[in-house]
Amino acid sequence: MFNINDAVVYASYGVCMITSVETRDFSGEDVEYYVLQPVDDDKNKFYVPVENSELQKKMRRVCTRQEVEEIISVMPDEDFIWIEDDSERKEVYRNIISEGDRHKLVMLIKTLYIHRRELSGQKRKLHSHDEKYLNEAENMLYDEFAYVLEIPRSDVVDYIKKAIRDKNK
User: Fold this and answer.
1) How many CB atoms are closer than 10 A to CB 60?
2) Which one of 14, 21, 49, 110 is CB 3.0 to 4.6 Å from 143, fit for a cystine?
3) Integer Cα distance of 72 and 103 in angstroms
4) Can you name the residues that pair with 10 across neighbouring β-strands?
5) Is the dihedral of CA 142, 143, 148, 150 positive or negative?
6) Contact 35/20 with Cβ under 8 angstroms?
7) Where do runs of H (alpha helix) occur along 30-155?
8) pLDDT in tens, the chain (169 residues)
9) CA distance 156 to 154
């Protein structure tokens, strides 16, 4: 159960605040909804039925600063998840995005960064679907990190690089 003023990550939409719990009639019957306001977007709101467990699975509490630091500290040790078969890769990456598991997001980002670097050396680019999954994973993870660390989104990658460098000294 979530409460008003809880910060949550909702699907791939990023960090949202639960601003209220309201009863609405969107489909012919009164239903109680969590009202989610994205922290970086005043124009959109999401209504998630309180009793809909499938949609609630897309909501997870924002991690703590300690959890962010822990995730960053293990980034260099995370495995790669490159899959040669395009359709299998799309399915696995789509599942990672929908699950929102932070460690798997790190593995996805790391894999696609390295693959992009390898392709760049061959004067080639990532497939458009790989680029899409990379952008979604980065947005999900970096938006949450920025919120938790109270830094601009644009500073997250530098923060991560510095933390990893400092750990390796």
Assistant:
1) 17
2) 14
3) 10
4) 14, 59
5) positive
6) yes
7) 53-56, 65-74, 86-99, 102-121, 128-149
8) 899 999 999 888 889 999 999 999 888 899 999 999 999 888 999 999 999 888 888 899 999 999 999 999 999 988 899 999 999 999 999 999 988 899 999 999 999 999 999 999 999 999 999 999 999 999 999 999 999 999 999 999 999 999 988 887 7
9) 6
Site of tokens 């909501």: 59
Q: For the stretch 89-115, what's the b/e string if a residue is b when 16 or more beta carbons lie within 10 angstroms of its beta carbon?
A: bbeebeebbeebebebbbbbbbbbeeb
What are the start-end ranges of the H helices in 1-99?
53-56, 65-74, 86-99
Percent of the chain that is helix, strand, coil (3-state, to 5): 50, 20, 30
Q: Rounded to two decimals, what is the model's pTM?
A: 0.88
Could you give the CA distance from residue 41 to residue 45 in angstroms, rounded to a whole number? 9
Placement of tokens 């680029």 in the chain: 131
Q: Do residues 57 and 95 make contact, with C-beta atoms less than 8 angstroms apart? A: no
